[in-house]
Amino acid sequence: MAQVGEFAVIEQVVARRRQPTTTLVGPGDDAALVQATDGRVAVSADMLIEGRHFRLDWSTPEQVGRKAVAQNGADIAAMGARPTAFLVSLGCPPETPVSVAAGISEGIGLAAEALGAGVVGGDLVQSDHIVVSVTVLGDLEGRAPVLRSGARAGDVVAVAGRLGRSAAGLALLSAGIGVEGPPDTSTTATSLTALIDSHRVPAPPYAAGLDAARSGVRAMTDISDGLVADLSHVADASGVQIRIDRDSVGLDPALAAAAERLERDPWAWILTGGEDHALAATFASVADLPAGWTAIGEVAPGNGGAAVLVDGRPWTASGGWQSFDAG
Amino acid sequence: MAQVGEFAVIEQVVARRRQPTTTLVGPGDDAALVQATDGRVAVSADMLIEGRHFRLDWSTPEQVGRKAVAQNGADIAAMGARPTAFLVSLGCPPETPVSVAAGISEGIGLAAEALGAGVVGGDLVQSDHIVVSVTVLGDLEGRAPVLRSGARAGDVVAVAGRLGRSAAGLALLSAGIGVEGPPDTSTTATSLTALIDSHRVPAPPYAAGLDAARSGVRAMTDISDGLVADLSHVADASGVQIRIDRDSVGLDPALAAAAERLERDPWAWILTGGEDHALAATFASVADLPAGWTAIGEVAPGNGGAAVLVDGRPWTASGGWQSFDAG
Predict the structure, then answer these.
(1) Which of A40, A89, A121 minimises the CB distance to B33?
(2) Residue A1 lies in a domain
(3) Where on this chain does substrate bind (chains A, B) (predicted)?
């Protein structure tokens, strides 16, 4: 890494990538220039730290890059916007193989390209551990932003995307499952592998987010801290109480299989597991739900009690993953 | 830090800050929304690592924050744009005093506010060393972006802002000068202190960048790697040779004093010192130079030789600071 130098790596990975037409000035100058046709730009940023948000013995560098894009892209989708451009600042120790920095950048580039977005800039610096800092820009295409504060009593609560899979995949990896050994093609092993893949590269329901924004969604958020925690952000911002029931959420058979294998409660993954980057939203009526959305509860007036009730009771387990609580 | 939690710190520092009218949706939702009235947004990102880009025994947390804003804001200024919004992702070890994270955020907030820009989002995560990752958005206000590739043979080369001061300040700090002891109010000590302050908080010539953009500047860049290195980027992008002369650049008396004190060559600081975030540009004629710009040379046709000549010769010292070469 030290020999090759930052410019070579950046240029190698970024410059050869095709830019969408929304990239007016791409990487290589002091700044990039991105189209924001409707006169506004949605923007969000997240930082991933090696050993905390990813492990290179559990994920390939490309998977780390793809995960960084998913995490950031979901924030834009949760506003009802479409990602247009990513910026990536990468900190690497000098002994980092070039293939790792290039692989992370490649994963970011491929995932951005799949979204029709460009990778328009960033930075590469020397650090003690690998740090991936991503910023995403998005285009509302003339629509109003979908905020957390729009939920109203009487709304239907719905989710798009999968829940608990990333947490289950992490639990499997932490138990040493799926890390090594020959591939096991049994049905159970295949579904456990799928959970691990969900942890490595979450798949936010981007299209469902755009469909919701076009269908009069009232409030929306991405599920990064856990369903209960993120719904409580919506409830607090909207001054309402959100009531969900587990029967409507349903139990993913793969989660049931993983829970049995690890002797764990799958509902802890579903209700408090973060990083799936599913979307949760409220709609005025169940008739408004676009394809890909599942009703899981309802919005009640705020009553000074718990922000979120699960099957009529406050969920007493941890409220989801937060950086400084995760140890 | 671990006790207070990320949300408390972020909310404490970010939420109470006044947002400019260009911040349509501020921090606290999945993403922010920033005005981009002319239908385009300029964007750039930089990462600062503790021990490499700043030291907390040499700078206060607030100075680190201000420096991060200057470094990013200068990239936007170099495109001829005005900074509108900053996003800050901060990585901190758990033992970091809250005052450090809050101080960095405060410095970023105050410096952004002075530019009329908002701090609209970011992230706070646990890391092994302090990492400050900043993204800046900017508004071209309908003007064409000013690129590095616009220089033409016959142009005048000019600079705005100061050169070599940050490098001299760093050299002084590295020699133990200005780190401790009672204040020395002699004239020399005052000018050395000013150099150290320039290292701690560079002052990019934002207004001169906007004036240049309005005055038909042809090419512009910020000086972050050193005058010769950054001019060589302009020369390479434009296919020209840039010729500067030291008499036109002039020798800042404070640099002369520091050079005498440290027995160093002040021209190494001026020609290859980075991090001042001055601006370098080319104009069609000297009559086009706005206030605050000083002509230092001329643009010649590209001839396959050195990208930059200083007093007619290639500058043979290191081509300026690069992250992975700085050791």
Answers:
(1) A40
(2) no
(3) 53, 275, 321
